[in-house]
Design brief:
This protein is an alpha+beta fold. Pfam families: HxlR.
């Protein structure tokens, strides 16, 4: 308590208390990755390549002290969110959607990890639209990523289950019920990060023959109906332009 008071904002406020726990640099990105399931220390470091190892250790310790993260006894070097930590999911999903409104094109050296890709799909998921569509598996691969970045997203009856694809990933339990039908349709998409942004934000993708994917146009349309991130507000600069027009 003394440490928190020393570093706190002096505000008896829910927002202040939340930021005291997850407002440090990198903390929310660690929470984002752990929302996908248990991760090893090495997994978190690989997903956040620019984080110094000492900072990652410090943030994990702080998140554990705050009751948001705990060690996984069955996984060496493994961490997972506590129920209190998982309560941040709607907050981080909302922040992901808001961030896509100001995302822009990738900057020099910016990458997207499998955890970031899977979380973007979770933020874009539209359960009401998906409920009216047949069970489908979507396999997305980011082109040019090294090591390869890919996730499998299975959509059944308005539910979404996303797991990383490839070696090294901790096995995560599928959340689908054994009674639910297994998807027979599979769409494979290979996209650059900027093309993924256009697909999720605008529903725009190259037609067969221009964008590498296995499947048909109907499955691609099914994807754009299932996954979409609506812009939160007008594009950057639009508000200023509108104000100038009024003046």
């Amino acid at each position: 308590m003394g440490t928190r008071a020393a570093r706190g904002f002096g505000q008896y406020s829910g927002v202040a208390r939340a930021v005291e726990r997850v407002g440090e640099r990198w903390a929310l990105l660690i929470v984002r990755d752990l929302l996908g399931g248990a991760r090893r220390y090495s997994d978190l470091k690989a997903s956040l390549p620019r984080i110094p190892t000492n900072i990652l250790s410090d943030r994990l310790k702080e998140l554990q002290e705050s009751g948001l993260v705990r060690r996984v006894p069955s996984v060496r070097g493994g961490y997972e969110l506590t129920p209190l930590g998982r309560g941040l999911e709607p907050v981080v999903l909302a922040l992901e959607r808001w961030g896509w409104s100001v995302l822009g094109d990738p900057g020099e050296g910016e990458t997207m990890s499998a955890d970031a890709l899977g979380f973007a799909l979770s933020a874009a998921f539209r359960p009401d639209a998906a409920a009216a569509l047949p069970p489908t598996e979507y396999v997305l691969t980011l082109s040019g990523a090294e090591p390869p970045v890919a996730v499998s997203a299975i959509v059944v009856a308005g539910t979404l289950d996303v797991v990383p694809v490839g070696s090294g990933a901790l096995p995560q339990p599928r959340r689908r019920s054994a009674l639910e039908p297994v998807p027979e349709a599979v769409l494979e998409l290979e996209l650059a990060p900027a093309a993924l942004r256009a697909l999720l934000a605008d529903g725009v993708a190259g037609r067969p023959g221009t964008t590498p994917f296995t499947g048909d146009a109907e499955l691609l349309e099914r994807f754009t109906r299932t996954f979409r991130i609506e812009p939160v507000g007008p594009p950057p600069g639009a508000a200023g332009a509108a104000g100038a027009a009024v003046a």
